[in-house]
Design a protein that fits this description.
alpha/beta, 6-stranded mixed beta sheet, 22 strands, about 35% helix, binds MU-OXO-diiron
Length: about 400
Amino acid sequence: MRALKLRDDIYWVGAVDWASRDFHGYSRSPWGTTYNAYLVKDEKVTLFDTVKREFAGSLMCSMSHVLDSLEQVDYIVVNHLEPDHAGSLDELVAACKPEKIFCSPMCEKAMGTYFPQYKDWPVEVVKTGETLSLGKRTVEFVETKMLHWPDSMFSYIPEEKMLISNDAFGQNIASTERFVDEVDRGLVDRLMREYYGNIVLPFSPIVLKTLEQVTELGLEIDLIAPDHGLMFRGDDVQYALKRYQEFAEQKPTMKAVVVYDTMWHSTEELAGAITQGLQEEGVSVHLLGLKQNHHSAVMTEVMDAGAVVVGSPTHNNGILPYMAAMLQYMKGLKPKNKIGGAFGSFGWSGESTKILTDWMEGMGIEMPQDPLRFKNAPTHEMLAQAAEWGRNLGRALKEKVGA
Ligand code: FEO
């Protein structure tokens, strides 16, 4: 892999993972991903982050294009210890023999659990507000605990107005392009939502606090360099900040997700009728069956929807297993400011809608009307009732949104 010059003496030296489809073991990455790392050749040559272990060779190859020897590296900054960024840290330490390795206090605490040999490394802890001189440039550190792990931090280079933002502002995309302005804007926006909805969403209060902190610290930013996907430069910096503010606020919208699983298509038919009813009230609806859609694809739509409707037939006194997995996944991501509904068919005992309602209320999702349940196959009258139930929910959503 070749290094890409971003500015004088500043290079992208990351790796492109074209084959990635399973990101972190729980989220799909249908467009692949990148593990970005950045090299600054100042009086102190500094590497910001490494890459996933199997891409260590690619990283070292990129660095070799712009360095005579890897041992020219004086400093390594570890913005985050998760293995997609620090997985090859030990190999880089061995190859570069850095004078110092900088990381946050929480990173230092956990480093030994990944690298027992770190006690022999020249690790120096840095906290929010601390600075490091590289020569002509300085680095200001901002801890961003839980964005995405307790150890995460940003590195800001004021002389370059460059923010190395680690997981924040990331998108999963493998490409030959490196900047947002070089690819389709709609795709970037979708991939930002996918990444935020599946990884960052539970930490939205921290995102809002961090955005405030960025303003308070008066960080002038002309380049956001995340550790996954494309970089934001010029006007795109404001676009990225604005989108993160919107994602984190989770204001309800006139969008609904109807997500369901089905056995003999009765619950599926109800889902279609509910969708019709919502649509008639002006709601934009995503109708997603769990046999066709991965839970992370559903979550990408849930994150900015004002309403979430879940359906499952009763099976062995419970709900279908894909739906149980979906609800467990959704709960962990802590969606906010939504209304919802539950529906499902049943043959005899009929517990599913109560179980679904309990899950939804447990997530703090308001349920404006009783669940919708039908025995066996729905008749025409039952489907008309389901459409009316959808219209009712659409009216409740309008009220919530203030539309
Ligand atoms: Fe990209 Fe939290 O790792």
